[in-house]
Amino acid sequence: MNSSRTKRSSSRGVFGFAVGLTALLIAAVIAYAIFGRGETTPPIVTEPGELLVVSEHPAEASDFVEVPHQAPDTARPLGEGIVDVRVVDGVGQPVADAVLRLECQAVEGDDGDRLPLLDATTDSAGTGSFGQLPWGRYSVSATVGDEAGRENVTLREERPRILLELILAPSGGIDGIVLDGEGTPLADVTLTMLNVATGPDKITTTQSQEDGTFLFSDLPLGRYQIQSEAAGFAAGLTEILEIGGKAVTIVMGPGGQLAGKIHQLGTSTPVADVSVHIEGNGYVGIDYEVVSDEAGAFQLEHVAPGVLVVTSDDKTYALNPSRNVVSVEMDQAASTTLYVEAAGTVSGRVFEADSGAPIAGAVISISGPDNLGRFWNSQPTDEEGRYQLTSLMPGPLTARLSKMPPPSEFSIASSPTQLIDLQPGEAKADVDFPVDPGQSICGTVVDSAGLPVAMARVVLMKYRPREESAFDRTITITDRDGRFCIYNVAVTMVEVEPDVFEPEFLTLEASFHEQRSEPITFPNYSESLSDVTLKLAPSATGVIAGLVVDDHGVPAHATVSLRHPYMTSGFSARSYHTESDGHFLFQHLDAEDYEIWLAVDNGTGYNGGKKLAHSLTLGPGERKLDLRLVVREGGVITGTVRDADGNPIQGFDVEAWDMDIGDYESSAKTDIEGHFEITSLNGTRYDLHPDGADDQGRYWGVPAKPGDDVDIVLTPDFYERYKAKTMIWIIDPETGEEVTVFEDYVPPVQEVSE
After folding, report:
1. Residue 391 above 50 pLDDT?
2. Separation between Cα atoms, residue 258 and residue 595, nearest integer Å
C-alpha cells in the first residue's frame, strides 16, 4: 500500500453574478471613493529599464466612470487597486459603448473565487475603469460586435493603478466537446484557455455542459491551448488552436503513474518526510505535492502526461537542481530517483547605512550553486528589514539586493553583491545589506496655463555619449497634483576613445493626450533635482499602421520595430507584436524620417531574422495606414545544449550572429529537453553564442550555417576549442564609418579596372 501523502492543487476560475438594482448607486459611491477624496495619490514608479503598461492617451481620473457588474457584497475582497481602460480601433480612434470585462486570475491571500466578474461600458472617449481591486492578476477584455481586445495586468502595492489601452481586432470563438476514453460526454470539466504567445498565460475559464460541450467566445485572433482538469482523470492540454477552426474534441484519460525514491546526495540512503512539488511543464496551476515515506519512496496516480519538473521548498532538505526532470506517458508507469542534501539557510537585514533604520519590502536574491547559476531563490524583507532564505542547496552562492520597494530613494547599486560558501545544514546569519540614498529627479507637469496635469506620462531616457539612441528608459505617471518622482537615477562615465571618458546624459519629457513637452536634456547630471517643470503644448502627431504577411500573403506573427535612421541598432524600445491578424500600429509620432524593422515572432519570446523592411518620411500629423510588410521563411539552425554530464539544459539562450556583417540576427531558448531552433535566418554563416558568459566568466562561439543541427556539450574541452571570437572596430571603406566585425573578418577584394 502506498504510504506517501499526496495533495493536488489547481487554480480555479471565477464566476459572475446577476446585476443588482443598486449598481448605479454603488458605482457613484465607488467613484467618489476613488476620485473625490483630496488626498494625494503616490505616483506610479517603475524601476529603471522596466516598461509600465500605459495608454498613449491617459485620461483625467474624473473621465473614468466605473459600472460594476454587481454591487460588491461583504463576501467580495476589496482593495486599493484601479485599472483604467481606453479602447481604440485599429487606427487609434476611441470606441464608445465597448463592453469591458474584468476577470480575476489570482488574488493575494485569496483564490479569487469570491471576486465576481466585473462589467463596464466605455464612454464617448472610449474609457472605463474598475476600482477597489485587491492586489492580484486580472484579465481585462473589450468587445464590440465581432471585434475584441484582451490583456492581462497585475496590480501590486508598487503599481496600484494601471492605465491600459486595448486595441480592437477581429475576434472569434473556440468550441468543442469533452469525452472520456469510451466516448462518453463529461460534464463539469474545468477548461482553461491559455494564450500560447504570452507564456502560456491564463485567459479565462469555463466548465463543460451536461452534454460535454463548451464554448469560449470573444477571443482576439491568436494562438491558444485548452487545459482540462477533472477528478479521477489526468490533466490534459490540447495542441495549439487557432480562432475559427473546427470544433475541438478533448479526450480525458487516466494519465500515467510516477514512482520515485529520495536518496541522500552521493549515497543510496533513503530519506523520509521530504516534501517536493511536481509540476507539469506547459500547464498552468497543475502542481502535485508529495512527501516521501519511511523508505524514501512516493507514488502518484493520474499524473498529467509529458515532461514534469520537480522542485522543493522543504525546510530540512534541498533538492539537487541538476536532476529534477522526469517524463511520464499516458497509461505508463515511470520512475525516478531524486537526490537531496541537508538544506542551508541565509538570513540578514537590509537597512539605511547612515541611520541603521530598517527597510521593508526590499528583495534579496540568491543564485547558485550549480555550474550554470540556474538555482535561484528570493524573499522580501519584513517590517524590521529582516529576511531569511531557506531550503538552499549547499555550495558557493551569490547573494544580492535585487529590488527596492518603490518609490525608494535608496540605491541598489550602493550595496555590493556578497559571495557565500554554504555548508550542508549551515545557518548563515548576518548577511546584511546596508544601502545609501540614490539620486532622484522630481517635478511637476503643467498645461499651457500653468495648471498641474494629473496622469501625464513622464519618460526619462538615458543615452551613452556620442550616441543618438537611448539604451534605457524609466516611465512614471503624475499624481493628482501633477507631481512625479523618478528615483535611483545614476549616470556613469563611458570610455569613448582610449583614455577619454565622457558621462552618459539624460533627457526628460512628458505627454498627455495630444500634448507634449519640450524635452529637457541633462548633459552632466550629478545631483538630485526636486523642482523640474515640464510644460505641455499641443502637438500634431502622426500614425503609421499596416499589415504583415508571409510569402503566401497570409497575415503573420511578427515584431515590427520603429526607429530613426541614425540609430545604431535595428531594434528599439518602440516595438509592436502582431497577432494572427498581422496588423501593427504606431501612434503619436513626430514629423521625422523613420525606418521600420521586421522580425518573425517564433513563439519563444525571441525574434528571428530582423531586417530593414521599409523607410519613409512622416509629415506633421500625417497618417500612413496602408503599409504591407512581408516576412520570409528563411533558414533554420537547430541544436541541443547539455552540461558536462550530458544532461539537457532548459532555458539556455542561444544567439545567432551573422559572421558576414558582424551583427546579431536571431536567438532561441532551449526547451525542457535542451533543444533549440533558431528560425528565419537570412545569412549564410553564423556564430552561435550564449547570451552572456557563465558564472566562471567563460564565453564561446560555435560556427554554424542554416540547415545544421549542432550538439553543444559544455565540457572543459568544449570551452577551450570554441573560445569566442573577439569583436573589433574597423572603418568601412565604402561609407567611411566605424563598424564592428569579428576579428577574423576578411574585407572583400576590390576589383581594379585597367
Report:
1. yes
2. 54
Q: Read off the pLDDT of residues 117-171 as tens digits, 9 standing for 90 and up.
A: 889 999 998 999 998 888 888 889 999 988 888 888 888 876 788 888 888 877 8
The answer to whether the beta carbons of residues 650 and 721 sit under 8 Å apart is no
Instruction: Report the chain's terminal Cα–Cα distance, integer Å.
Output: 92
Give the C-alpha separation, 343 to 419, whole Å. 18
Per-residue pLDDT band for 57 (boundaries 50, 70, 90) equals very low
Residues 6+ apart with CB under 8 A from 497: none
Q: Which residue has the cell 520537480?
A: 310
Q: Which three cell numbers stand for residue 434?
A: 546596508
| Residues 431 and 348: beta-carbon distance below 8 Å | yes
Residue 534 to residue 698: CA distance in whole angstroms: 47
Residue-wise pLDDT for 67-116, tens only, equals 333 334 445 567 788 998 989 887 678 899 999 999 888 777 654 455 77
Find the mean pLDDT for residues 571-575: 53
Residue 741 C-alpha cell reads as 566585425
**Residue 587 near residue 618, CB atoms below 8 Å:** no
**pTM assigned to the model:** 0.54
Nearest partner of 234 among 261, 250, 252, 246, judged by Cα: 252
Half-sphere exposure of 484 (CA within 13 A, CB side): 30
Rounded CA gap, 549 and 584, in Å? 11
CB–CB of 387/359 below 8 Å? no
- Under 8 Å between Cβ of 298 and 4: yes
Nearest to 514 by CA among 485, 486, 543: 543
Give the CA distances from residue 213 to residues 229, 309, 548, in Å, rounded to whole numbers and listed in that order: 15, 32, 35
